[in-house]
Specification:
By secondary structure, the chain is an alpha/beta fold. Helices cover 44% and strands 21% of the residues.
Length: 608
């Protein structure tokens, strides 16, 4: 086996007196496809900068094979010294690189190359940065949040481009689908150390949960050992003084181990305690838009769009940057007026919005004042108040951050702050513009659970395909020419339906042709309606029972794994039970997804 292109050994780094990295090891081999995951603040970006050579560790060893080329995508590229996009991208090329590749990449990313770097939007800056690191085809490519500010077409193009590269990849991203499609190995940065899984990201969460459950068992065993030693100290024979002294020292060491274990577990399991404060029940019809049109100059953004949004719907709005997603969202919220057409807001609607650009955050305002409104230590919640420090902890902020200016917070922290402010208000209609920006995977999971349990209505704009698939019941897709079409299901369902339509069009069975064939049917003969097939009916009847049985099996496995002596008594059976639990959880998710699809199909057919 060839030696690694780059190696980190026993890397330590401390910031502001707090250890960030405590003995990190990492090896990057030729053609590797690694994703680097961990909580916000765990040090992922810092570790990537150490790999790139931009930060020097306090101790440890970094070795790069001679002749290895490396490129690093910063979250915020430095354009100083360059005038145009093409000039900046070409600056990354070596003597033997293809100079025409720079222009090719810019074109693929929707840029001409003549753009002034001082006037670029966030999305354009990210595209220029990507072109700069992709142009030379390096041996090692380090990408820190490459999908930030990119729209769905650009993300899917980037995936395809990265799959064709021979470079070794190390990716940091909060886009689950992106990591699943590209990774072949997962590096988990957890409590200052790295753990490696030789599988793609889609296997990571089950593996992580299994490790944490095993840690819980070990901690329980340690607690029991400490109790035995404490009992001996109190009731044991005191005449053998030397032995007593040794056992007292051992007990002190065990207590220190327990203290560190509990501290580590607290760091690994700290969760955002998000909760919505729901308002009263809205009317059954929440929003009704009819014949809505909106143009800017000669460009049509929304053309003759109609939709009925009922209580409990979860609507996702998707499309390329510039198609008008935010404009459509604002019109549905009543914050923008259409040129023609009507938008009616239903009865008793209590609207809560979350803006994409975090524009409502004053960078000079402290975290405490941003949550309380200033002049108070209490956060006003629906039906009561909560101390600001307690509310901050719910969203993973530390008490010492209370006076921190918002301008000094990271992107992920600002995202959590926006959620904390928004979720304190009562609502029965949530309108969220890119709510997943800069959130770590654990916070995304909790936001997903919150939205799933929310009894009101949700309308959101997002480029996160996995998040859309988990949350929405229908997708409104904008093609960029003012046409917006609603598709039942999540993002993947929308892609399949669009693909089917395009396939029909290519084979000559277009919608127009279907309409013509319908007009030729004699008026006295009714057109047969689509019905559930026997297989679909059978699945709809039997799936709930299968789901219930699987949930019971999962509960039994959890009970077995929670037995304090199970691992010590039968480690092989423990591992088999843990593996079976992971398989059952995956199967349960698949069955629940099938059942939901069939329920939605049945409702759709009844409405015809």
């Amino acid at each position: 086996m060839a030696p690694p292109l780059l190696t980190l050994q026993d890397i330590h780094l401390t910031f502001g007196g707090t250890p960030l990295l405590e003995g990190v090891d990492l090896s990057i081999f030729e053609n590797a496809r690694l994703c680097l995951v961990g909580r916000n603040g765990s040090g992922k970006s810092t570790l990537l900068k150490i790999v790139a050579g931009f930060i020097e560790a306090d101790s440890g060893r970094r070795f790069v094979q001679p002749g290895t080329t490396l490129r690093y995508l910063r979250q915020e590229p430095d354009f100083s010294g360059y005038k145009t996009a093409l000039e900046y991208v070409q600056s990354g090329l070596g003597p033997s690189d293809d100079i025409y590749r720079a222009q090719y990449l810019l074109g693929e990313l929707g840029l001409e190359g003549s753009e002034d770097l001082t006037t670029l939007s966030g999305g354009e800056a990210r595209r220029v940065g990507l072109a700069n690191v992709l142009a030379p085809s390096p041996d090692i490519l380090l990408l820190d949040e490459p999908t930030n500010h990119l729209d769905l077409p650009a993300i899917e193009w980037l995936e395809t481009e990265l799959k064709t590269l021979r470079s070794a990849l190390v990716l940091i991203s909060h886009d689950r689908r992106f990591l699943e499609n590209l990774s072949e190995g997962t590096v988990w940065l957890d409590r200052g150390k790295t753990r490696y899984l030789a599988r793609s990201f889609d296997q990571f969460e089950a593996w992580r949960d299994q490790l944490l459950e095993q840690e819980d068992l070990e901690a329980h065993k340690l607690d029991r050992k400490i109790k035995r030693e404490e009992h001996w100290i109190v009731h044991g024979v005191t005449a053998r003084r030397k032995r007593n002294v040794r056992r007292v020292k051992e007990l002190q060491s065990l207590r220190q181990d327990r203290s560190k274990s509990r501290s580590d577990q607290a760091r690994s399991k700290a969760n955002v305690q998000m909760a919505t404060h729901e308002g009263g029940l809205s009317g059954k019809m929440v929003i009704e838009a009819e014949g809505v049109n909106k143009s800017f100059g000669n460009r049509e953004i929304v053309g003759d769009f109609s939709i009925k949004i009922r209580r409990g719907d979860r609507i996702g709005i998707v499309g390329a940057n510039g198609t008008g997603k935010t404009t459509l969202l604002n019109m549905l919220a009543g914050l923008d007026t259409p040129d023609t057409g009507t938008v009616k807001i239903g009865a008793n609607v209590e609207l809560l919005t979350l803006d994409q650009a975090r524009e409502s955050l004053n960078p000079d305002l402290s975290l405490r004042d941003a949550l309380t409104g200033g002049g108070s230590d209490m956060v006003s919640l629906s039906g009561g108040h909560k101390h600001v420090v307690g509310y901050m902890k719910d969203f993973l902020f530390q008490p010492e951050q209370a006076r921190t200016p918002i301008g000094e917070l990271s992107g992920g922290e600002r995202g959590r702050l926006m959620l904390a402010r928004a979720l304190a208000k009562p609502s029965n209609l949530l309108m969220l513009d890119e709510p997943t920006n800069d959130l770590d995977l654990e916070t995304l999971d909790l936001l997903q659970e919150l939205l799933s349990d929310y009894t009101g209505t949700v309308i959101l704009v997002s480029h996160d395909r996995d998040f859309l698939d988990r949350i929405v019941t229908s997708v409104v897709y904008g093609s960029g020419d003012g046409v917006w079409i609603e598709y039942a299901g999540g993002y993947s369902d929308m892609i399949q339906q669009r693909g089917a339509v395009e396939k029909q069009s290519a084979s000559g069975t277009t919608a127009k042709k279907k309409q013509q064939s319908k007009t030729n049917i004699p008026s006295g003969i009714p057109v047969p309606k689509r019905k559930l097939s026997f297989k679909e009916k059978h699945a709809l009847e039997t799936l709930p029972g299968k789901i219930e049985n699987l949930e019971a099996e999962i509960a039994r496995s959890n009970d077995k794994l929670n037995q304090s002596d199970f691992f010590a008594r039968d480690p092989e059976n423990f591992q088999q039970t843990a593996d079976r639990l992971a398989r059952d959880r995956a199967e349960l998710e698949d069955l629940e997804h099938q059942w939901l699809e069939l329920e939605l199909l049945q409702e759709e057919l009844k409405a015809q």
